[in-house]
Amino acid sequence: MRKKIVAGNWKMNKTFEEGLKLASEVVNMVKDEVKSDAGIVLCPPFIELHAVSKLVEGSKVALGAQNCHSKASGAFTGEVSVEMLKSVGAGYVILGHSERREYFNESNQFLAEKVNISLQNGLTPIFCCGETLSQREKGIHLDFVKSQLTESLFHLSESDFLKVVIAYEPIWAIGTGVTATTAQAQEMHAIIRDHIKSKYGAKVADATTILYGGSCKPDNAKELFACPDVDGGLIGGASLKARDFVDIVKSF
Ligand SMILES: O=C(CO)COP(=O)(O)O
User: Fold this and answer.
1) Closest atom of ligand 1 relative to the 167 alpha carbon
2) Where along this sequence does the record place binding of substrate (predicted)?
């Protein structure tokens, strides 16, 4: 059985104090309410990682970063390395989010380097893919998402690929309140799984966790997570409220 995961991507939200409050509320609610063994990951901004890691210690909640640099260390002012992330207790790192692709020009090739260095340092990449509305309207969305996976991930060995979590986030659904229908989500997730199968075989494809992201909320998470190829969610806006985030976690 592949792992089910709900990860919260706080993006550039929450001051230090607010972040600690949110993380401790999540940890307490999870302790009291969550019976499933689903993976739960909080991805706060860099400056909150260390303190949040202390708060989640000994709980079911794991820690992730929202980005990393592609090089191990050096003269890269303002950047954060994977080794630094590991040193504050991060186990996951979100890579290739559409906001980073758009605002920071991150290409599939560049993301492949980030995937490599994350895996070399024992961090689990949550690799994001997804199409724009115009790509969907032109009918090229399936091929576009497949090419994102091919170009950033398909150089990996089977054992490394098995460590990657994939998040399908249609750009038109991010922060818009427009969620993909269950049919749209399931179609793309099945295509992604099939594409993985064509490269790594059925066993690997079957073991790969594929999350959905894009206006996932407590009131639609249950039906999305019930799709056979949807293994959880990468949550933006709704992860900023502990009650909503934990309700989503409880939607399996
Ligand atoms: O981008 C997302 C998570 O990475 C999704 O954001 P929203 O849940 O706010 O649409």
Assistant:
1) 4
2) 9-11, 175, 215, 236-237
Residue with tokens 């890269």: 76
Write down the CATH number for the domain with range 25-249: 3.20.20.70
Paired tokens of 70? 């592609």
74 Cα–ligand 1 center, Å = 31
C-alpha–C-alpha distance, residues 92 and 242, integer Å: 20
Residues catalogued as catalytic: 97, 169
CA–centroid distance, 87 to ligand 1, in Å, is 27
Give pLDDT, residue 55. 98
CA distances from 52 to 62, 127, 169, 191, 205 (A): 10, 22, 25, 36, 33
Across the chain, mean pLDDT equals 98
Domain boundaries, the chain: 25-249
- The low-confidence residues of the chain, meaning pLDDT below 70, are none
Which residues neighbour 179 within 8 Å (Cβ) at sequence distance 6 or greater?
173, 214, 215, 216, 217, 220, 224
